């Protein structure tokens, strides 16, 4: 049986088309996926992301444990509320999951993981905790809901819906968060637009959703979320990386911190030994067709493969992320196998669009 977020009844009452996503029944759209996409790029839209899982890590050794668990370094986080994006790796350097870590104090961190990998992530973290003997406790927070409000007008509309929130959140920089009563307000997102991701008690989620609708925020589904994140050049777990793909090959080398030679983390030795073997770049289709995942790409330097693809509502072109041979450069002409035909495409450096603007 699929699981339901605290907002399930709200989505159904609004006429959302519901689909199974990683074992959760979620809204894919409320009518027009294209209109939802444009709402986020032009004004403000919101997504139920309560299927994602928040984990609280507490204890004297929480900081040290995380330094050995993930490829990015939480030692960078010194201010309460500061966050970073990271990959959690297996010993072979493959990506178990990509996640966000919030520093609440040196003994308290919040980790937000993907819905489809949540059970696996929790089991892995418990295994590593037990093996390390670290003085730290992991708490699963299924008592919480999460709503992402994104777009150029997102912050102003959140402030209209949550009286008093502007005072504490107006100063937040990207990848910073603050507690405000029952709300945890983070200036993060997965669309390439400004906005907040708001965590709150599950029983309060439906009320906030209604208040945001009344403030002029458009409900949006997973369809628009996917086209927005792909335009923004943001990776999707299971498509653009997985346990068989290293972050170096997935275009996520910027999330691997090797500055502290004394710091060891799971997968470090494998990453150093393997190095970068492939690169992730963008494609824009120049012929008629639609780019999807797992399509063969033919380059002068060898063959590659698309990892995510879609039609871009902002560019009005078909776009993709692709894992390509080293040596391929933005501007190169390549061909993509679409239904047995080789169609022309151009290599570009992502992102394709952000902050309401096409960049290609």
Q: What features would you describe in this structure?
A:
This protein is an alpha+beta fold and 360 residues long. It folds into 2 domains: 1-276, Probable tRNA modification gtpase trme, domain 1 (Gyrase A, domain 2, 2-Layer Sandwich), CATH 3.30.1360.120; 277-358, Aminomethyltransferase beta-barrel domains (Elongation Factor Tu (Ef-tu), domain 3, Beta Barrel). The protein is 22% helix and 34% strand. The protein is built from 9 helices and 21 strands. The chain has helices at 8-13, 33-42, 62-69, 118-132, 154-161, 165-169, 205-214, 222-231, 268-274; strands at residues 17-21, 24-29, 45-48, 53-58, 83-89, 95-105, 108-113, 137-140, 144-150, 177-180, 183-186, 195-201, 218-219, 278-285, 296-299, 302-312, 317-325, 333-338, 341-348, 353-354, 357-358. A 6-stranded mixed beta sheet has the order 10-11-12-9-3-13. Strands 14-17-16-15-18-19 form a 6-stranded antiparallel beta barrel. The longest helix has 15 residues, at 118-132. It is globular.
State the CATH class of the largest domain: Alpha Beta
Structural class: alpha+beta
Fraction of residues in β-strands? 25-35%
Low-confidence stretches: none
Q: What series of H and E elements makes up the topology?
A: HEEHEEHEEEHEEHHEEEHEHHEEEEEEEE
Q: What's the architecture of the largest domain, going by CATH? A: 2-Layer Sandwich
Number of domains: 2
Mean pLDDT across every amino acid position: 98
The helical percent reads 10-25%
The name of the CATH superfamily of the largest domain reads Probable tRNA modification gtpase trme, domain 1
Strand order of the largest sheet: 10-11-12-9-3-13
Total DSSP E strands: 21
Shape, principal axes of CA atoms: globular
Number of helices: 9
Radius of gyration: 20 Å
